Amino acid sequence: MEFKKPYIILSAAMTIDGKIATKTGDPELSDEQDWREVHKLRSTVDAIMVGKGTILKDNPKLHIKFYEHKGYFRIVVDSNLSIPIDSKVIDFQPETYPTIICTTENAPTEKIKEFEAIKIKIIRSGKGEKVDIVKLMPFLYDLGIKTILLEGGGTLNWSFIKNNLVDEMRITIAPWIVGGKDAISLVEGEGFEKMVQATRLKLIDVVNRDNYVILKYKK
Ligand SMILES: NC(=O)c1ccc[n+]([C@@H]2O[C@H](COP(=O)([O-])OP(=O)(O)OC[C@H]3O[C@@H](n4cnc5c(N)ncnc54)[C@H](OP(=O)(O)O)[C@@H]3O)[C@@H](O)[C@H]2O)c1
């Protein structure tokens, strides 16, 4: 049977040494031009998805600042429904950017009611410790979400890479090195054991601008 899934574009900005934030969680890597390009890309998708860690650390609005657009879904992956209800991803312009929280069967019923009362859509996917993102894909597809911009962080990126769900990648490399074994990398998780297992992508575009490099890959 055909597996219905949205087309997944992983987007991130990282340092030369592959870090998407410093060891203290400072994520300020992009210049204005890069933000403009990312916002342009946001304007072409049906949804932006991030993990709970990104909500807790950055509290992003996940909106579009620079262009006219029709809006899209914001999707948060949160196993126990524990993000603050006043996070910007919930509060900021919900008419333009409705929010979906993907959680597990373990999420407390009271919490679900609290979020649903303010019109947040809750999807429960899986009974395990983490959200079952493979099972989640057809649900999102059936909601009309055919393209998702996956904006991290590193832990959620790994789950998508491990399950071979990423179709395309757009990576900005800032000409900086921050180091730190505790600084979050583009892809975290347990990683593959052998190079032969690595996800292999095809380089489709390279842009060199103001010392930044923008790389585009496809499956
Ligand atoms: N430079 C960039 O482009 C960029 C972009 C985005 C984020 N960031 C940075 O990345 C950092 C956050 O990354 P992070 O790795 O800590 O967190 P994350 O990937 O944003 O979120 C991971 C969390 O999501 C929840 N989750 C639920 N189901 C999951 C599943 N199946 N797979 C993976 N995660 C699942 C888990 O928490 P629960 O189990 O508790 O729910 C998990 O710990 C921040 O510092 C942020 O600034 C940088």
Structure description:
The protein has a single domain, classed as 3-Layer(aba) Sandwich (Dihydrofolate Reductase, subunit A), CATH 3.40.430. Helices cover 23% and strands 25% of the residues. The mean pLDDT is 97. The chain contains six helices and nine strands, in the order E-H-E-H-E-H-E-H-E-H-E-H-E-E-E. Strands 5-4-3-2-6-1-7-9-8 form a nine-stranded mixed β-sheet. It has 219 residues and is of the alpha/beta class. It is globular. Residues 12-13, 20-21, 25, 27, 29, 50-54, 57-58, 77-80, 130-131, 133, 151-156, 159, 184, 188 line the site of NADP nicotinamide-adenine-dinucleotide phosphate. The site of NADP nicotinamide-adenine-dinucleotide phosphate (NAP) has 30 residues, from strand 1, strand 2, helix 2 and helix 6.
Mean pLDDT comes to 97
Give the amount of beta strand, in percent.
15-25%
In the CATH hierarchy, the architecture is: 3-Layer(aba) Sandwich
Number of helices: 6
Radius of gyration (Å): 17 Å
What distance separates the N and C termini? 21 Å
Q: And the CATH topology?
A: Dihydrofolate Reductase, subunit A
The main pleated sheet reads as: 9 strands, mixed
Note poorly predicted spans. Answer: none
Q: Helix fraction?
A: 10-25%
Cofactors and ligands: NADP nicotinamide-adenine-dinucleotide phosphate
CATH class: Alpha Beta
Number of domains: 1
